[in-house]
Amino acid sequence: MGIEVERKFLVVTEQWRAGAERTLFRQGYLSTDRERTVRVRLAGDAAWLTIKGVTEGVSRREFEYAVPPADAEILLDELCLRPLIEKYRYRVQHAGLTWEVDEFLGDNAGLIIAEVELDHPDQAIELPSWVGKEVSDDARYFNANLIAHPYCRWR
Amino acid sequence: MGIEVERKFLVVTEQWRAGAERTLFRQGYLSTDRERTVRVRLAGDAAWLTIKGVTEGVSRREFEYAVPPADAEILLDELCLRPLIEKYRYRVQHAGLTWEVDEFLGDNAGLIIAEVELDHPDQAIELPSWVGKEVSDDARYFNANLIAHPYCRWR
Keywords in UniProt for this one (chains A, B) (predicted)? Predict the structure, then answer.
C-alpha cells in the first residue's frame, strides 16, 4: 500500500526515443469507478493487479499485488472490460529521474504520454525538452477513461 | 485460478449450531458487475482479494490472492462500495463434506445461508436436515447483491 504521487505530460517531440528500451503492456480493468479502479496488467512475463482510489490533487491510494501471468491472461481475455489497452512503455532517464513514456496502440494510437513518479507532491523537477502540456489532472488521459473514450474518437 | 462449484441453501433450523466455531467476516466490493466481481475480505487476521467471473450453472471462474490485512482494512474503510457485508461464518461437518454457514449481520440480519463447495457440478451430496430451499442460482442471495438490496428491505 502507498500513496502515489505522479505527474503526467504530453510528449511533443521524438528526442526521447534514442536507446530507450520498450516493453509491451496489455492491460484491462475490472472496475473503472474512479473511487476504486482495479487494473490487470501483463508486462512481458510479469503481471500485477493494481487498485487505486480517487485522485486527490496529484496523490492517490495505490495497492499493487503480483499475480501469476497465466491468471492475468485469463482475466484479460475473459473478465476485463473491453477494449483492452495496449501500449509500449519506454523507460527514459532525465536529470536523475526515471520517466515512463507510454506509446499507445490500437484505438489509442497517436497518443504518447510521459509520467514521472515523485516522493512528494511539491518535489521540484527539471522537465525534459520533449514534454509539453501537463495533463496530471485531465481525466481524459486516465487509462481507465481511454477505454470508454479512446483517443481515435477525440476530434 | 480455478473453477468454483458451489451449492447454496437457506438454513431452516438451528441444529447446525452446536459446537460450530465462528469467525467474523468483514467484506466489501470494488466491483459488483456480475461478469467481474472484486471482493475484499477480512476474516480474523487474514485477508484476501477475490475475483469472480459470471456464473454459468453452478460454476464460475474464481481467482483468490492473499493480501496484507492492513491493506484490506484501508480498502474496506475507504474504497469499497457501501454498505459493507458483515457476517459470522461457521464451519460445519456433515457426511464427509464441510459446510459453511453464513449468519448475516447489520442490514442483512435474519438471513442464514449454507454453502458447500464441490469437486464437480454433478457430485452427489447428502443434504443436512437443517437446510431448506436451494438458492444457488437465485441472484438475490449473491453477496454482491446483498449490498444494493439488503435482506432487511425484502418484504
Answer: Lyase
Report d(CA A143, CA A154) in Å as an integer. Answer: 15
pLDDT over 70 percentage in chain A: 96
Q: What is the ipTM of this complex?
A: 0.77
Q: B106: which DSSP letter?
A: G
Q: What is the pTM of this model?
A: 0.79
- With an 8 Å Cβ cutoff, the interface of chain B facing chain A consists of 1, 30-31, 33, 35-36, 38, 49, 51, 53, 61, 63, 65, 67-68, 70-71, 74-75, 78-81
Any idea which architecture B2-153 has in CATH? Beta Barrel (2.40)
A123 min Cα distance to partner chain B (Å) = 26
Direct distance between the N- and C-terminal alpha carbons of chain A, in angstroms, rounded to an integer = 38
Return the exposure string of B56-70: e unless at least 16 CB atoms fall within 10 Å of the residue's CB, then b: eebbbbbbeeebeee
- CA torsion through residues B48, B53, B59, B62, sign: negative
Give the per-residue pLDDT at B58: 60
Contact call for A53 and B78, based on CB within 8 A: yes
Band of residue B121 on the pLDDT scale cut at 50, 70, 90: confident
> What are the residue ranges spanned by the domains of chain B?
2-153
